[in-house]
Amino acid sequence: MKIAVCIKQVPTREWQPRLTDDKRGIREQDASWELNEPDAYALEEGLRLKEKHGGEVVVCAAGPARVTSVIREALARGADRAIHVQDAALGRADGIATADALAGAMREEAFDLILTGLQSDDQGHAQTGVVLAARLGRPHATIIMEVQVADGRLRVKRELEGGWFQWVAMALPAVLTIQSGINQLRYATLKGIMASKKKEVRVVAPASPVTPRLEVLSLYVPEKTKRTEILAGSASEAAATLVRKLREDARVIA
Amino acid sequence: MILVIAEQRDGTLSRASWEAIAAAQHLAAGAPVVVGIAGGDIAGVAAGLAAAAVAEVVAVTSPALAAYTADGWVHAHTALIAEVTPTWVVLPHTYQTRDFAPALAASLDRALVTDCTAIKHVQGQVVFSRPMYQGKLAADVRVLGEAPWLVTMQIGAFRADAAVRGVSPAPVRTLEVAIAPSAIRQAPEAPFQEARQAVDLSQAERIVSVGRGIKGSEHLPLAQALADALGAELAASRPICDAGWLPMERQIGSSGQTVAPKLYIAVGISGAIQHVVGMKGARTIVAVNKDADAPIFEVADYGYVGDLFEFLPALTAELRKS
Ligand SMILES: Cc1cc2nc3c(=O)[nH]c(=O)nc-3n(C[C@H](O)[C@H](O)[C@H](O)COP(=O)(O)OP(=O)(O)OC[C@H]3O[C@@H](n4cnc5c(N)ncnc54)[C@H](O)[C@@H]3O)c2cc1C
Ligand SMILES: Nc1ncnc2c1ncn2[C@@H]1O[C@H](COP(=O)(O)O)[C@@H](O)[C@H]1O
């Protein structure tokens, strides 16, 4: 089975946002980067499917030169090769523009199965995988928590709200957006890191110019609507204050 | 014209539909609003929606729409949009919307803004606010290109009871769409719930909830000790359950349980919207986080900014004192 996994590079969770002077983007030079979390699960699922059914896993990333670091990481975890659609404008592109760039590079590969994360931790469009499916003319299903493959067909478990699930079947080739927690992640071994150095990374330009559908006018720290009472002092002073307030003001403990 | 795409399951309207109507009425600023609802047997839901102060309700039906499928919904709403010719299409940002709306936008080749928390009219231009970077930042964005533009509203961003009701019911019209069975490539099975929940956190009076700040399962006893001292249940954010440190049934949030205890103590939880929707109904919320800008402080009544590994033992000790 020829499997593609779309991976995005995003700022780490510890990163403290700092904005560019025009307040329309983040200062990238201050950010440290990592693999978007759901994409790590998508990659793991791809690797497991390959182990079971044979074939190859190709990671596909769209973005500026900096995204090489997550491509290398994915190769070290076990992906066979990579496609990097490189363009400065893809660093902040919206879901449709990103999917167009990916579709242009992925079409000729004729993948049997394409896995993406359900959502990116930076822009959070929750669009790219589904738009990619539409662009490639493939059926899709989203927020997937289990994947079964048999006789050229997929049976996948979709997560619904509030602890509900649903199985959905469809023919391959198809596109799935993967939810965090679908499997237990593996991490790169030293052997994997060494092996990754010899793996192919094909760098291509977008097939057509990146056309944005959304424009960010400004970025800002969200305004607070609720007044939080911050507990002052050392940990034990704050704890004493909190217990008193929970008892006497909020009356939520005895 | 503004089109709202409402959502139902098995003939029951999803509450978020009324939130989307409220958002559309705000966006419309007086322009007519039409509500569309797709499905098999939806006469009842359509009649219910007619209570809204809208120009009309369009019930989009076809035998192919008896059960939800992404392809079915894309076909149905493509037909609806061709019929209504709206400038804006407003949807609630539910899991179902996530499943079909991007495909609908792709087939129309139009902009889609997702997960919006606010709609502003600025100098004749419509500006949407949406979270970015897991809620650490918000962005004001505008759409580019031709109408119709699609926008999905974050759950809770508008109140369902803010949707204006009409003095008399709006007209309801049925739009029969022809969808060839072969056009639907997904074969869905019936929704189900995983084995019955052994713990029903919705009944808990007090909850101590841990997030990724707890670092490792070996530190969970710190939180358990606090829960014991409070007579509270232990719960968690998604990553803790994903990692298997606590069972799934203790997960709070959009894909886990929704709770409304008297006291909710969020420990090392950043406050992503998918977590917050599950606990913001708590009467008193305490947040413990080393990051003063963490979004969880948006909903917290009391906050401790600092290291949970110092604060949890201190709080447990304080409670045990008396
Ligand atoms: C469709 C969908 C459904 C989802 N459903 C759910 C759901 O049901 N429930 C859910 O919880 N999430 C859900 N999520 C995931 C959600 O978006 C967040 O990723 C998740 O809630 C983050 O968990 P967290 O706050 O524990 O981790 P993080 O976001 O990593 O936050 C950890 C926090 O701990 C703080 N911290 C670190 N160390 C310390 C310390 N020593 N002392 C004090 N504070 C510290 C950090 O400052 C940070 O704020 C869903 C996501 C999607 C896309
Ligand atoms: N620039 C990108 N390169 C590769 N994959 C991407 C990119 N942006 C988004 N994706 C994929 O699409 C998913 C959803 O992203 P988004 O639509 O931004 O929420 C991510 O989890 C990735 O798998």
Description:
The complex is a heterodimer of chains A (254) and B (322). Chain A contains six helices and 13 strands. By secondary structure, chain A is an alpha/beta fold. Chain A has two domains: 2-204, HUPs (Rossmann fold, 3-Layer(aba) Sandwich), CATH 3.40.50; 224-254, no CATH class. Chain A is globular and about 65 Å long. The mean pLDDT of chain A is 96. By secondary structure, chain B is of the alpha/beta class. Chain B has two domains: 2-189, Rossmann fold (3-Layer(aba) Sandwich), CATH 3.40.50; 194-321, Rossmann fold. Chain B has helices spanning 16-28, 43-49, 70-84, 95-108, 220-230, 238-242, 273-276, 308-321, and strands at residues 2-5, 8-9, 12-13, 33-39, 56-61, 88-92, 112-116, 118-122, 125-132, 137-143, 149-153, 172-176, 187-188, 192-193, 206-210, 233-236, 263-267, 284-289, 302-305. Chain B has a seven-stranded parallel sheet, with helices on both faces. In chain B, a hairpin with a 2-residue loop joins strand 8 and strand 9. In chain B, helix 3 crosses helix 4 (95-108) and helix 5 (220-230) runs parallel beside helix 8. Strand 9 of chain A pairs antiparallel with strand 14 (192-193) of chain B, so a sheet runs across the interface. Flavin-adenine dinucleotide (FAD) sits between chains B (134, 211-213, 237-239, 251-256, 268-270, 272, 274-275, 278, 288-291, 294, 307-309) and A (13, 118-119, 143).
Q: What is the straight-line distance between the termini of chain B? A: 63 Å
CATH homologous superfamily caption of the largest domain in chain A: HUPs
Helix-strand pattern of chain B: EEEHEHEHEHEEEEEEEEEHEHEHEEH
Taking the sheet with the most strands of chain B, its summary is: 7 strands, parallel
CATH homology group of the largest domain in chain B: HUPs
Biggest sheet of chain A, strands in spatial order? 9-8-7-10-6-1-4-5-11
Radius of gyration of chain B: 22 Å
Relative helix content of chain A: 25-40%
- The backbone outline of chain B, from C-alpha atoms, is elongated
Uncertain regions spanning at least 5 consecutive residues of chain A: none
Q: Determine the most extensive contact between two protein chains.
A: A-B, 77 and 97 residues
Give the beta-strand count of chain B.
19
Helical residue percent of chain B? Answer: 25-40%
* Beta-strand fraction estimate of chain B: 25-35%
Q: Roughly how many Å apart are the termini of chain A?
A: 61 Å
Q: Indicate the structural class of chain B.
A: alpha/beta
Name the helix and strand elements of chain A from N-terminus to C-terminus, one letter apiece.
Answer: EEEHEHEHEHEEEEHEEEH
Whole-number mean pLDDT of chain B: 96
Number of strands of chain A: 13
- This entry's quaternary arrangement is heterodimer
